[in-house]
Amino acid sequence: RKEVEQDPGPFNVPEGATVAFNCTYSNSASQSFFWYRQDCRKEPKLLMSVYSSGNEDGRFTAQLNRASQYISLLIRDSKLSDSATYLCVVPHQAGTALIFGKGTTLSVSS
Amino acid sequence: NAGVTQTPKFQVLKTGQSMTLQCAQDMNHEYMSWYRQDPGMGLRLIHYSVGAGITDQGEVPNGYNVSRSTTEDFPLRLLSAAPSQTSVYFCASSGKGQVYNEQFFGPGTRLTVL
Question: With an 8 Å Cβ cutoff, are B42 and A93 in contact?
Answer without folding.
Answer: no
